[in-house]
Amino acid sequence: MMKICHPLDLCSEPPAFVRSCGGSSVLVGHNTLMEFNLSGYPFPGWSEARDRRTVAEAILPALDRILPSDEWVLQAEVQQLTREERMLLFEREQLTSTMAAREDGVHVLLNRAQDTCVFINDEEHLLIQTYHPGGLEDLKRAREVALADQQRFLKHLPVAFNKKAGMLFSDPYKSGEGVWVAALVYLPGIMQTYRNYDLADSMSELGILCLPALSHTKNEKGDMYWLCSPTTQDLGDDATYDAFFRTIHELCDREEEARHDIMRNTLSLHFLNNEMDSAFATLTKKKSLSYRDLLHAFSMLRIGLAIGKFTTDTPVQKVHQLIARAYTEALPTYLQLARNGRTRKERRALRASIIKSLINDELRIHTHSIEEIS
Amino acid sequence: MAEHFFPEELSGDIEKFIREMITESFGQNNDEEGENRTEAYELTECPSCHYKLADFRQTGLLGCPDCYKAFAAEFEGDSEENATSVDTPDQANQELSIAEQRERLERMLRYAVQRENYEEAARLRDQIKSLSS
Ligand SMILES: [Zn+2]
Predict the structure, then answer these.
(1) How far is CA A1 from CA A60, A70, A73, B91, B107, in A?
(2) Cα B45 to ligand 1 centroid, rounded to whole Å
(3) Closest approach of chain A CAs to the CA of B68, in angstroms?
(4) pLDDT tens digit string along A117-161?
(5) B131: distance to nearest CA of chain A, Å?
(6) B interface toward A at CB cutoff 8 Å?
(7) How high is the ipTM of this complex?
């Protein structure tokens, strides 16, 4: 049953959501999340190992029937993974912090394309998370697909459900439809134009949870965000989703505007130009590079590539691929396991040298002055 | 500066004062609610998973699917509170039970202290006291 490739083997490819980032569009993709609990068992946060094992034994065969199991490249009980392997998966957003810390009966499954993760006994008994690249129309369709998958599971498993609340969760405010979509948005324009704008704050007023992508501490802020749809109070509550889609649509428009404004406004273009120059120096000259600084500098690099500040002979698709790979190869635990970076200092030096050779040798990026781009 | 407005009790240890005030009223609140409770209200522990209502109040999380039934009254309470919140304060006061009035005043008291409006806090505290007597 257990199929464990070494989690390090997964690192030859970035997770799917990283592969599609770096494009110049705003809504780069989205996750669908389908969650449920089995009736008759305590929720994972209040359960004992025995209950969690029973739940996993019930879910795994059903999963086998519904999702083809030969697709899984990693199927492991979290207990079987070392602390570093758990960290590695966590940094790649392929394991949650709750799961990394919990003891037995907790399972993680990951498919070959690395676009589907299955978590058993995370916050709820089952969470299936699937990434799809694409825009707003795909986002709407993805939700329908997730709802259809949910129906297939309902036929095979005794799912905890009541007519009044819908799907039942450990947090009663989550109860309802049991399907969420999380849009992955790329907002360099807004982040550059409104430096003090707190996206998470304004989204939370609309009931939308906003989490920075590819960052694991409060200080590591890039320009990619996950925006998670609000919980629907009733089954078939389309109004909530319509409002969510409208917000995403508006945010995309604002981002496009912000990008244009930067180019029209001489002052902000000057300011941005300086930032891009200093980011380029960070990427090509520094002997030590923190992950946080990398996120910022990469953000500048991507804007620069989009507006012609930076150019390269490498085809666009290849540029995106290489940048995506660099994101994941610069993660702390990857550097520790794959490159033997034992201390933070060693890891920062390794990160700096990987990025330097990416920019200079692989991408061969040229920079241009402000006069050349405006 | 604001210290001029500190009533005596508040100037010492505001936190402690608030905590005592709240513990005191919560204790009484529970007793009064107890008399009016329906059967569902009497469940303080889920019969299936033994998760405690007190833990739910603290963490906001439930223990198992059956907790929804066991603590149903807890959720229904929410909507009742919302229904009264649209009334003007005076109308609402007439219709609210003493326990509910106290809860409302305590919320206002906490808010007043957060804003460092100690005059208002002292006034609210007196109101809370007069409810208890
Ligand atoms: Zn329970």
Answers:
(1) 9, 11, 12, 65, 55
(2) 8
(3) 8
(4) 999 999 999 999 999 888 888 888 888 888 888 889 988 999 999
(5) 34
(6) 48-49, 51, 60-65, 68-69, 75
(7) 0.82
